[in-house]
User: Fold Glycosyltransferase from Methylomonas defluvii.
Amino acid sequence: MKIRRVSLFLPRDTRWYRMLSRQMAQGFSQAGLEVSYCCGLLDQAGLSDWINQYRPDVIFEMNRARNDVPFLPKHIIHICWLVDFNGRVISDFYGSEITYLFSANWLDKFCYDGFYRWLAPGACLNDYYPATPDVRYPASFVGHIPKPWSMDELDADISADSIPLRFGEVLPILESRITSQRNYLNVHDDYLALLQTVAKEHFNRTVKLTNKLEYDVSGRLIRMLNRRELIDNILTVTDLALFGPQNWNDWDVYRPYYHCQLDSVMQMRQVYAGSQINLHEGESAHFRVMDCMASGGLILIKKNHWDELVGGGIRNFFVPGLHYLEFDVDQVGDICRYYLNQPLAAQKIRSAAVKAVRQAHTWRHRAEAILADLAGLGYKVAC
Assistant:
């Protein structure tokens, strides 16, 4: 059997996933495959109908591994791209012929023998390209922030013992420990273990874990801490435009800087190119990073300890100071001040980033790399 057809499945039917699936499908098509795609993970009946209609040789799913689809026929190759744990542990994702990990930070936590490696996003050059910028913002941040904790959430009893323990009692200690131990916290399990440690050491309690609490600690709290720290530092230096879901309006301190949700490629491209500096924290080689670079935007990325990992990390692709800027939080203000006043230096980095993305980091390049992985595993690729 030669691989000729691939079906892509992204987690949900949202505007952003519809846009992303179209871009990814275009990349696989440019690499020579017949492509079908869907926003939503199908159940057994739905997947059976899909297979009968499109006859894929490969199914590529985001955030769902083969063990989650035991009804998938054995002759179809399954690829899982693990981008978000969604409150699950990394050991829940197994059985696929290929597993790609969105963060290089997860590589040493994957515990199965099958083929796996880091996979960063690509960019779609039809959607993201440089144009004469209409500079509107000195700095911008595109992304979401979780809602602030409600009183009910802070008062919730998280104890597994007979003596109650309020989440609000644990929270400030947990925040402090996360901030001081960032380099040692990689996946969902690490944050839950830290929560249990804090509860035991400070309150002599064991925590009763629920799906909500697990997500709040391993996802929501991390984004909240990191984004507040970054934005609070930037606001001491310059004005800032915030874009994303309306959760920003729930924070009194950030409401004056919030603009809107970006609902189209054109809006995102305009913000990336129309900001003197684009800020990013989180996974360094993120969708936003690739799209911003392709649009000719100058992006300032929070430095991560895994950026230089061989086989994973943004420094495998790009050079800080040449294609992008990197920062530690205590330095971000000085870096912003410098480049806000050095437009020629900023433009040099913008131009180098566009060139680098075009040469090696489009969705076509990612699709070709995936086909090379399949060929390396002994599968015959028709194109």
Notes: Residues 43 and 69 are 8 Å apart (CA to CA).
